[in-house]
Specification:
The protein has 144 residues and is an alpha+beta fold. It has a single domain, classed as endopeptidase fold (from Nostoc punctiforme) (Alpha-Beta Complex). It is 21% helix and 30% strand. It is built from four helices and eight strands, in the order αββαααββββββ. The strands form two sheets. It has a six-stranded antiparallel β-sheet. A two-stranded antiparallel sheet has the order 1-2. It is globular, with a radius of gyration of 14 Å. It starts with a helix and ends with a strand.
Length: 144
């Protein structure tokens, strides 16, 4: 299954913390899990992060989100390819992610906006000084 095509089927799904139901509600982490499960790159049910409050990144510096991603992905140093994951640091830790779809754009689920396409350098993903919050680009390992 094509990751970018599957990602686009989630567009306009409302944001809902902890949810993973296409057309009904999803957060950024659950969106990644759902798409990679559908593509066969994650075994369904293998990646279950458990409960997490929507504002976890404001109150702790433990890298839980990053830990989930690093369990299945490797940091890359080159240009992102379609299907890679862009991670962003909001608050005290990595707490947001999206799927790279080409031309410096990602599909992600954002609070108050739902699943949208954004440029990785737009204001939404930058801090107050205009600096990108991009933490790194990760590539999913193949299921063995």
């Amino acid at each position: 299954m094509d990751i970018v095509s599957e990602s686009k089927t989630w567009l306009n799904t409302p944001y809902h913390s902890g949810a993973k139901i296409k057309g009904v509600g999803v957060d950024c982490g659950q969106l990644l899990i759902a798409i990679y499960e559908d593509a066969g790159l994650l075994i369904e049910g293998d990646c279950e992060p458990g409960y997490y409050p929507a504002d976890f990144h404001l109150h702790q510096s433990e890298e839980k989100y990053l830990g989930w991603v690093e369990k299945y992905c490797d940091l890359i140093t080159g240009d992102p390819q379609q299907g890679d994951i862009a991670l962003f640091k909001f608050g005290k830790c990595v707490s947001h992610g999206g799927i790279c779809i080409g031309n410096n754009k990602i599909i992600h689920s954002y609070i108050g906006m739902g699943v949208i396409i954004s440029n990785m350098n737009e204001a939404l993903l930058c801090n107050k000084s205009g600096t990108s919050r991009l933490y790194g680009i990760y590539r999913v390992r193949q299921v063995t």
